Amino acid sequence: MTEKSFAQRLLEASQAHKSLLCVGLDPDPARMPVPDVFEFNRRIVDATCDLVCSYKPNLAFYEALGLAGLEALKQTVDYIRQAAPGVIIIGDGKRGDIGHTAGAYARAMFEVWGFDATTVNAFGGGDTVEPFLAYPGRGVFVWCRSSNPGARDFQDLPTDLEGVLRPFYMQLAIKALHWHDKGDLGLVVGATYPDELKKVRAFCPDMPILIPGVGAQPGHLALSVRYGTDKHGRMAIIAASRQVLYASKGEDFPQAARKAAAALRDEINQVLEEEGQGWR
User: Fold this and answer.
1) Dihedral of alpha carbons 232, 236, 242, 248, sign
2) What is the rounded CA–CA span in Å between residue 23 and residue 26?
C-alpha cells in the first residue's frame, strides 16, 4: 500500500471536522485551573477534539517541568490517539542540527514520540532538514517567518540567492521548494506578518503552512485565512494556544475552551465561505 503524504493526511483531518484550527497544548502551571498537566490537557482535548484538525504540543513547556512533564506529554499524545485518532499531532520543537545529531532529533520526534509532524530550524541548511524527510507521510514544518516582533532583526535581511536579492525568509521558503516534492514539507509563517505570509504563499502555492500567532498574539485571523490557504482554501493550519487554553481560570475551563475554539473555527470558516471555498 502506498504511504499517504502528509499533505493528504492533513486534508483528511481538516475535512473530517471542517476545520483549519490547531490548538496548541502549552501547559503553564501558573495559569492552569488544575495542577495536573495531563488532566488539564485531557479535558481540553475532550472539549475540542471535534473542532480541530490538529493539536500542537510545544515541547518547551513539557521539558521545563522535567521528567514529570515528559510523562505528561506521553500521556497526552497517547490520549489524543485514543480520543481523536484522525487528528494531526505536531510536535513543536524547532529542532535543528547537523549530520547524525539531526538524525537523532528526527528519530526522537517520529519514532520515540510518534508525532505526525514536527517543526524544524533550517538555519544549518538543507542537510539539517533531510533526516526529518526520511519518514514518509510525516510533516516537516520549516521555521520560515516567526511571529515575534524581533523577527525582522534577521529574517528581513537582504540575501542573494542565485543572483536574486530577497529577504532571508523568502529565500528560505524558495529553497525549501527544492528540498522535497512529496507533500511532506511545509513552512511556519506567523499570523502577525500577513503581508509576508501572502508573499510566501505566492511562491509556495501547494505547501502546507503552519500559521501561529492567532489569539494572544495580535495575528490577523481573516488575513491569515485569505493569504495562508492554497487556491482551494486548504493546506493551512491556523494555531491558537493561550486564547483557548486559558479562556477561563475556573472549573469551567473546558467549556470556555470549547467556546473559544468554536468561535475561532467558525470565524475561519466564515472567511472561507466569503472566498467561495467553504466545506462541502
Assistant:
1) positive
2) 9
Amino acid letter, residue 14:
S
Q: Among 272, 241, 205, 273, which residue's Cα sits nearest to residue 55?
A: 241
- pTM for this structure? 0.96
User: At a CB cut-off of 8 Å and minimum separation 6, what does 36 contact?
Assistant: 72
Residue 182 annotated to the active site: no
The angle at the Cα of 9, spanning 73 to 242, to the nearest 5 degrees, equals 40
Q: Phi and psi (nearest 5°) for 127?
A: -70, -15
Reading the block at residue 120, the C-alpha cell is 524544524
CB atoms < 10 A from the CB of 237, how many?
28
Which residues of 83-217 form beta strands (DSSP E)? Answer: 88-95, 117-120, 139-145, 158-161, 164-167, 185-189, 209-211
Least confident of 85-94, 175-184, 211-220, 224-233: 211-220
Residue with cell 539531526: 102
Which listed residue (4, 18, 56, 94) is catalytic? 94
